[in-house]
Amino acid sequence: MDKEPVKTAGASKRIVSGMRPTGGLHLGNYHGALKNWVALQHEHECFFFVADWHALTTDYENPARVGDNLHEMIVDWLAAGLDASVSTLFVQSRIPEHAELHLLLSMITPVPWLERVPSYKNQQQKLKEKDLSTFGFLGYPLLQSADILMYKPAWVPVGEDQVAHVELTREVARRFNHLYGREADFERQAERAAERLGAADGASFRELRRRHQEQGEAGAVEAGRKLIVNHAGLRLVERERLLGYLEGSSRSILVPPEVLLTKTPKFPGLDGQKMSKSYGNTIAMREDPDAVVRKLRTMQTDPARVRRTDPGEPEKCPVWDLHKVYSDTETQEWVQWGCRSAGIGCVECKAPVTERIVAEISGFRERAREYEANPGYVRDILARGNERAREVARTTMDEVREAMRLDYV
Ligand code: TRP
Ligand code: SF4
Description:
Layout (H helix, E strand, L loop, with lengths): L14 E5 L7 H14 L5 E5 L1 H8 L6 H15 L7 E4 L5 H12 L2 H5 L2 H9 L8 H4 L1 H10 L5 E4 L4 H18 L5 H10 L3 H17 L4 H10 L6 H12 L10 E4 L27 H9 L20 H9 L2 H12 L5 H28 L1 H29 L6
Parallel strand pairs: 1-2, 2-3, 4-5
Helix pairs in contact: 3-17, 4-8, 4-18, 8-9, 10-13, 11-12, 12-13, 14-17, 15-17, 17-18
The structure holds tryptophan and iron/sulfur cluster.
């Protein structure tokens, strides 16, 4: 059965995440990330963007493809159920403030912090045919930090491979606050801001701060933050002081975000490896149903099951991974028993997942139709999203420039 995507405590806290424009998405992308985004948008204020500049960090030789890839991907976002009236959907390069923040953060980020990010060396080794010795590629996690910090999210939903990037983001935010959020009489100013919380909230705030700083109590920072963020009577600078006071001794201008780890079952490709465009083993989200049936018919099964009468082992079969995503308990038990006893054949075994996948894809195709027929709709959606994102970005950059004393003209 489909697992419920991760839920989080404390609704209505902002979420930011991005995706490189790889073109049309496949079922692995859907079950690995997109489905989770769709669920999150109903509980949180969400900003989702196309990381088109990120595509250039590894593919600067082929920029001509980015536009079409971007369009195809957005159609799949909408087909999956992302709702532009609920979430803000936008394009990174249309918000030039991302580049400005990236540049300013680059001034304070030690190069070894970037060289230490695991994906830096991994990707260079894995993608030997590409030239990844550029400044842009080294700085790519910092661009990601700018993408995130711009919107001051509480959470960044990402997979395991992106966790180190969010950690870098937290460190960069702390360094920024330490450098530019210090004030001569910070403690006194922060105490004065705490008074503005009123007697009851003020007392709770001090207690949470004490529990965090003296006892390292998990959750105390979260609770304190919530109290501050939800408080209507604070000026921005007071809010920044209190957020910083909770954890340290400087204003919190850029807010260190938390990772919201997306836990996903392994989603197998047709050859049994992880589903990935680079392996050519995918089923597209808008694949033709006949093609789905054909592809699944020849999908890899337990190699030990040569004849219909040979028993098999689901754990060695990628079709079983599909059953884990798509089938209910009863069907799963039927597979376990039928495979190990040779009571069912592989063709039979594939039938229920084939049916579920065809149904899922038909839903995507149905929803995508109006956007395929009217490219103008997609353009309008992005234009509106860009505008909304830009408003937030402008505000953050005003604060950043002010904190850095760059607001001189
Ligand atoms: N680096 C991410 C990836 O390759 C994409 C990305 C760019 C991102 N900026 C982001 C993800 C900000 C989350 C938040 O998948
Ligand atoms: Fe795989 Fe099902 Fe065949 Fe077993 S019966 S090998 S689980 S396809």
